[in-house]
Fold this protein.
Amino acid sequence: MITVLLYTHPDDAEVDSLRARLAALQSRVPHRLVEVDITQNAGLAQKLAGRTPVLKIGPYTLEGDHLDSTNLLVALKAAAQGKAQGRKVEPRGVTAGDRFLYWFAKHWLLVFNLAVALYFSLPFLAPTLMKIGATAPAKVIYTAYSFTCHQLAFRSWFLYGEQPAYPRAAAHVQGLVPYGKATGLDEDDLWQARRFIGNPRLGYKVAMCERDVAIYGAILLFGLLYGLTRRRIPPLPWYLWLLIGWLPIGLDGVSQILSQIPHSPLPYRESTPFLRTLTGALFGFTTAWFGYPLVEEAMRENLKALETRFHVAEKVWHRPAPPPPPDA
């Protein structure tokens, strides 16, 4: 026996005649009629507003002028034949996957914030582990983050040392001893700067560069603010995202790269820790501001769809089937 879903609204005037037509076809194509009042579910009410009554017979949806006896019989026979041939025509019940998706759609921001907080925090754990002598787990963190960040020592923060950073001499940062002078290493040896972790005197570098620290810290900051405002912050317009988020970081990073190419017509420049932090923070904050409200909108739509599925599944799977009418 196949299941027929009848979506109705209390104001529908032709539901009784539709029930009678279906009852008259019961002896020809046995079926179970399940009625769903769309006013009991906000998602259904929005989706089917002004369209009811609507019939769902297997993969077929009938409404309006298509609810005559001929179309009903054709759809019933086709659905019954499909079921006989092993095709899935019945509404499925609620699965564990559905419940997980529902939970995730409600708690996605918590998941995102925890993930970003973990990703942001582990690089600071690495120099702490080095400080207490736990070099093996520290190097695991450095190695893991080396796949996502260049980890150049002269573009990274340092903990537990004489200075918070050791920029290149070309950055002209007042009050900080340059990387080459502090370490005795060649400032142009990028591979060596990548491998240099630090020492007890200079401290140990954070496992993410200054710009990445600012990016993920700003993303986490916006995520926390978004949660505190109950997700009421509207998305940042795309043009402001490009202007405030992308343009500064692009100008700072690209101009630095181009200036350091051999025979470049641009004067050689090295960005400062302040500029890398500022542009990274702007990029991270505006990216989250642009993206998180859009994710929230998508998750709300998913919640509506899942609530509709749960509502229909409850009607189909948790209520006894009515007895078939007696044969005429």
